[in-house]
Amino acid sequence: MISKKITISDIANELGVSKTTVSRAISGKGRISEATRLRVQEYIELHNYRPNVIAKSLAQSKTFNIGVVLPADTNLTEIPFFQSCLMGICDVAVSFEYDVVVITTTEEDISQLKRVVQKNKVDGIILTRTTTNDLATAYLKENHIPFVVIGSSEDAEIVQIDNNHVEGCAELTSILIKYGYYRMALLGGNPRHIVNTNRYKGFIKAFRDNKRMVDESLIHMNLTSKVMIERTVDLIMEQGVDCIVCTDDIICSQVLTRLNEKGYIIPNDVKVASFYDSVYLENYNPPVTSLRIDVKSLGIEAGECLINLIAQHEVAQKTLLDYELVLKKSTM
């Protein structure tokens, strides 16, 4: 036999209370005695009652959806990072009976985000990338939408979940300086992405902390294509660098490929390190010195933080997760 699905009315009739009392016991809102609340909770657990999602949404003025904004202009090689973030967010969402709505934007076009917000399809938003003069954060603040960013923001009022890129990159660079590598080149990506700016700051900080001069001619940011990276590698090798530090795994993998094409041997001819580790660097020989972070944990922390914000609980303004330095043969 198929058991009948019970309703709030059934529970109210069975316990001899009003439907309002049952709703208050389920939602935890409104005045109700502790004894009555426990009676209702025991009954629904015994009968495996699950509130109707639509009715629950209407009762609490919530959609029980959270939006996750992914960059539409993501390079294919960046996808694993955003996938890991999304997996962490989804793990948290399902545990709180939330669903995830994926939204894509670019730095100049946030129309999809606006449409989702204007149609009240989500209770809050997680942004997975932050940029300078960020349109998405400005729009969400203006419309008083609960949101969290994975990464750092120049706006101290925004709730941020990030790794301590400045300190991590400074620590790794300091180790390389202490190894005796002074002619270090830094190859980085788009400086509008705040993560790249923070990694640059960490690199500079290490030289200052160690009372070493930075050779600005060996710093090359905004390397957004394979051709640009190849030309830069050729240039800095002609300048006699002893170590190449890359702001991320994508640039690092292209640097390694170019060095191999030109017949350079790592670490004999030049040392190489990356400020971000990933699957793209796993199979290189020699193994690459890098800064390792747990990307899924970023998503988990952001998901928990957003749901607490939606529930109007107090949350930390900025959370910095730890990192791990992995020293390997590419710098030995």
Provide structural commentary.
The strands form two sheets. This protein has a six-stranded parallel sheet, sandwiched between helices. Strands 7-6-8-9-10-12 form a six-stranded mixed sheet, sandwiched between helices. The chain is built from twelve helices and twelve strands. Helices cover 43% and strands 16% of the residues. It is elongated. It is an alpha/beta fold and 332 residues long. α5 crosses α12 (295-310).
- Main beta sheet: strand number and arrangement? 6 strands, parallel
The tally of beta strands, per DSSP, is 12
What form results from the Cα inertia axes?
elongated
Our Rg estimate from Cα atoms comes to: 25 Å
What is the helix tally? 12
Catalogue the unreliable spans.
none
Strand pairing plus helix content: what structural class?
alpha/beta
Question: N-to-C SSE series?
Answer: HHHHEHEHEHEEHEHEHEHEEHEE
Percent of residues in β-strands: 15-25%
> Main sheet: which strands, in order across?
2-1-3-4-5-11
Distance between the termini: 70 Å
User: What portion of residues is helical?
Assistant: 40-55%
Estimate the mean pLDDT confidence. Answer: 89
